[in-house]
Automatic annotation (TrEMBL):
Catalytic residues (UniProt): 542 (proton donor), 585 (proton acceptor)
Keyword Disulfide bond set for record: no
Record field: transmembrane: none
PANTHER family the UniProt entry points to: DEHYDROGENASE XPTC-RELATED, GLUCOSE-METHANOL-CHOLINE GMC OXIDOREDUCTASE
Cofactor(s) required, per the database record: FAD
Protein name: Glucose-methanol-choline oxidoreductase N-terminal domain-containing protein
């Protein structure tokens, strides 16, 4: 009877019962005591869901964000100019250092976790692409719900996007597009930078000579090959387009609140239901409690969503008991299955004109190009991270792919962390079977290459995120466990060998390229692995998969409707729910997942 009463309250609560000026709040005294929905995190997914829910004027929504919001000149100078992208700008990220990575000579690295309204889309390289149909269809197979396959997600990719086709000049560079694959009225602009680095065209010729297809448009679900990528770029002004746009649309609504500078310390749970949240401005400061009449929506990202669940008593009971946290739900999958993209770049001395490296190595050139951008919005500062990308399937980069996959499939060892819970192990075995089947085709990428790069795009290695105490202001332990699975090592070595094959092509002869690191004398697998372990990066800043969709008995944390197992009124809508990371830069996928998540919430109305 109580659950029916709560449902009725959620559906019937009228906005007209109280004054509710939609706005950015600064004081706790301006908050209501209760909202229909409380969204934890004003990043990419949180702003999407809050925007869509407040389209219904009868639903009140509060977004709680730990970081700051930028406006005016500060936003323009620090965020909006594409060529000034800084992934690790410490003013806008949490100060997290990873645990030592056993396969990378126990090196530690910064774990980039955004701390700003707009989340990762305020800081990322602005690449706006999608994974392959197979990547998302693998999700649907794993979860057992076609709603997470390509055909179901495509409308949500399009819903987020306003696409501007290439100009006549850009079409002359070779850019093509599939109009049916793009959206036309979403909050996020996608378009092509107005500057061309001509070496990209030459590189594509060398790839084509080795059998790599030139992709018409990555947005149509077939991005395997080499392609020109849109950026999340507003064609008017040539500035970043990011998730704050969803806030700008919602902020005039009388049923929307956003408060910043507040860190959620706990999700309150009573009688098996999430009833609201507690938050504070700092350790030791007063706590504020807000009630969620319908749902708490967790959108804190791949690192902080599992951390908050654990602090709130949802997670592996053994971990929670270690820190005397009352166990509400014994859910061992929380914080497991953590994934990211990783990679390494061969170093070459070569002649490119103009060279993208000049923007960092030549202060005079950088200033001239910045002034060019500020004057007329042209030049290399219109590019975020890249204007052309290559994603390779395993059969494209090595003739020995079958032996690599056979060894991975037959291996009796899981290569997971010692003490992995049996449910998590069951889920990994299922994922591995699905992934290996995909790797044997040309339908899913395993390796991204910009020019001299090799990467692991759909890893079998699995990391974890765990609290280190019951103090919500203690940062979590994060371990990517990069290259802990030998198949990932094999793919990375194959990717490096293929990058060398491209660089040796006659089409690139004018570059006069000479490999300097690790050097052409380093050829054996083990020699390459020694260099890899010294040099590679374990992260592309794509933290994901740490609260995965899936069956509970297979390590799942949320079901196919993104509801957290074992507790009512709690849903997760960010990249942590990915079961397997797709081979793509993930911002476009996060937008699509969040757009669908909003519709899943609306199904309860």
């Amino acid at each position: 009877m109580r659950s029916l009463q709560l449902l009725a309250l959620c559906i019937l609560s009228p906005v007209t019962a109280y004054a509710f000026p939609g706005t950015l709040l600064e004081r706790e005294s301006d908050l209501l005591a209760a909202y229909d929905y409380v969204v934890i995190g004003g990043g990419t997914s949180g702003l999407v869901v809050a925007n869509r829910l407040t389209e219904n004027a009868s639903k009140t929504v509060l977004v709680v964000e730990s970081g700051q919001i930028l406006n005016g000149d500060e936003e323009f100078n620090d965020i909006m100019i594409p060529g000034t992208t800084s992934f690790t700008e410490t003013r806008f990220t949490w100060n997290i250092t990873s645990l030592p990575n056993a396969e990378l000579n126990n090196q530690t690295r910064t774990v980039v976790s955004p701390w700003i309204v707009g989340g990762g889309t305020a800081l990322n390289g602005m690449v706006y692409d999608r994974g392959s149909k197979r990547d998302y269809n693998d999700w649907a197979e794993y979860v057992g719900d076609k709603g997470w396959g390509w055909d179901s997600l495509l409308p949500y990719f399009k819903k987020a996007e306003t696409f501007t086709p290439p100009s006549a000049e850009q079409q002359g560079w070779g850019i093509r597009w599939d109009e049916d694959a793009h959206g036309s009225d979403g909050p996020i602009n996608s378009s092509y930078p107005t500057f061309l680095y001509p070496h990209n065209q030459v590189f594509m010729q060398a790839e084509k000579a080795l059998g790599i297809p030139i992709v018409k448009d990555q947005a149509n679900g077939d991005p395997i090959g080499s392609y020109w990528t849109p950026n999340s770029l507003n064609p008017e002004g040539k500035v970043r387009s990011y998730a704050k746009n969803y806030h700008e649309i919602a902020k005039s609504r009388p049923n929307y609140h956003l408060i910043t500078g507040r860190t959620v310390t706990k999700i309150n749970i009573k009688n098996g239901k999430a009833t609201g949240v507690q938050f504070s401005t700092a350790r030791g400061a007063a706590l504020t409690t807000i009630t969620a009449k319908c749902e708490v929506i967790l959108a804190a990202g791949g690192v902080h969503s599992p951390r908050l669940l654990q602090l709130s008593g949802i997670g592996d009971s053994q971990l929670l008991k270690r820190f005397s946290i009352p166990v509400h739900v014994d859910l061992p999958g929380v914080g497991s299955n953590y994934q990211d993209h990783s990679g390494i770049m061969l170093a070459y001395n070569m002649t490119l004109n103009p060279d993208p490296a000049w923007l960092t190595s030549n202060a005079t050139y950088r200033q001239e190009m910045l002034e060019l951008y500020l004057r007329n919005r042209t030049g290399p500062f219109t590019i975020g991270y890249a204007q052309r990308l290559s994603f390779y399937a395993l059969p494209m980069i090595t003739p020995g792919y079958e032996s690599l996959l056979s060894a991975a499939a037959a291996d009796p060892h899981s290569h997971l962390r010692d003490g992995t819970h049996p449910t998590v192990l069951a889920g990994f075995r299922k994922q591995k079977r699905i992934l290996i089947a995909s790797f044997a085709t040309n339908e899913s990428a395993v390796d991204e290459n910009v020019i001299t790069f090799a990467s692991v795009q759909r890893p079998l290695s699995r990391g974890y995120v765990e609290i280190v105490s019951a103090d919500p202001f203690d940062l979590p332990a994060v371990d990517w466990r990069t290259l802990s699975n030998p198949l990932d090592r094999g793919i990375l070595v194959a990717g490096l060998r293929f990058a060398r094959r491209i660089m040796a092509r006659p089409e690139l002869a004018a570059w006069n390229a000479v490999e300097t690191s690790p050097g052409p004398q380093v050829t054996g697998d083990e020699e390459l692995l020694v260099w890899i372990r010294q040099t590679m990066t374990p992260t592309f800043f794509h933290s994901s998969c740490s609260c995965p969709m899936g069956k509970r008995e297979e390590g799942g944390v949320v079901d196919a409707k993104l509801r957290v197992y074992g507790v009512k009124g709690l849903r997760i809508v960010d990249a942590s729910v990915f079961p397997m990371i797709p081979a793509t830069h993930i911002s476009g996928t996060v937008y699509a997942v969040a757009e669908r998540a909003a519709d899943l919430v609306k199904e309860t109305w």
